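User: structure tokens for this one?
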Amino acid sequence: MKTSILMVSGLAPLSLCGMAVANVDLDFELLNSNGTDSTSYVLNVDGGALDSIDFAIDFTNTGDFTWAGDVLFGFTDPNGNSIEFGGYNVSFGYTVGGDFPADWDVDVSGSYGFSADLAAFGLSGGGDWIIEVANGYETSVDTSWAGVLGLNGLAVPTPGVLALMGIAGLTGRRRRA
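Assistant:
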């Protein structure tokens, strides 16, 4: 299992900055996977609640019976609450948060997009979020998914405040004689 760590925020000095609810983008890939292959990502955010997810996925099928919608995602908040989304006959064992639309039930390589409302599941909190991606079709062979997840509703430092902190740091320096 491959694990990647992405620091979105969470540094102590930044706790003094203003926070904004934003769309946190996560690039992911699960390349040339066989059934049940998975990878995990860790996002560190300041807080907020996962309201919705925008899926933008490129699917590559090498002639297998795997469908674009067989990709399985798991989302675990810092409090340990988890849901899964998508998949076919593989599960992380989490509460089911939904499935992709019927037009993803095809074995055609291409780009697929979808937005899912997940506010009802109450995933929230500051700290480490774990995002898992798996081949959700057990007998799949050499199938790939890659793309971007837009995680909407999570709190990150506001860019304007960070820029002002940087400027203040530069102007506050003085030279010793």
